[in-house]
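Service request form, structural biology core

Requester: graduate student, group of Dr. S.
Request type: structure prediction, single chain
Budget code: on file
Notes: please return the result as structure tokens.

Sequence provided:
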Amino acid sequence: MWMHIDNVNYTKANVGVAISDYPTGPFKYLYSKSPHGFDSRDMTVFKDDDGVAYLIYSSVDNSELHIGPLTEDYLDVKNVVRPILIGQHREAPALFKHQGTYYMITSGCSGWAPNAAMAHASESIMGSWETMGNPCVGGNKIFRETTFFSQSTFVLPLPGLPGYFMFMADRWNPADLRDSRYVWLPLMVGGPVDRPLDYDFGFPLWSRVSIYWHKKWRLPYRWNE
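Core staff response, request fulfilled:
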């Protein structure tokens, strides 16, 4: 298990590692560190199809994201790192892969207050990433510009439903963080993007990412068969 380790004033900014024989624990805490010698705040881990896992974390005072592969035993980072989205101040990365393309949902940096999510895509996880815009669909404008009053934390593939995923997010309660809740919504990859690339005014080859608002929803019957 990889986790964000910090102190009360957010100056430690480390990652931590724990191990267990079972997903439900008990876990043995191993250590914390500054990955690649950088500060690390919001973070996630992504395991690729070839078994290689990557650590993705907000760094340099949340001004950029860093991506780097883990060691084969998943207990440390290798001495390789790629800064991405430099100067864009994105956090809460949630990565997933569809038809060979890497996608990522991120949040802006606004403390505990929600803000507009952004979708990003790349043909290589260690390559350059392009921003495609706000993926939120439905609800009113305030809902879409606050990621439905939540912040990205993970994107879960749905076996048996190609192109469909579950967007998982935190709905923070600053007055009582222990009473914060979750928002889980359907995410779909498909159709053309609606925002051209800035550098050549062309449209990228990858598909649009859409997160759909529903007050209530359910997965299709026998979806995982």
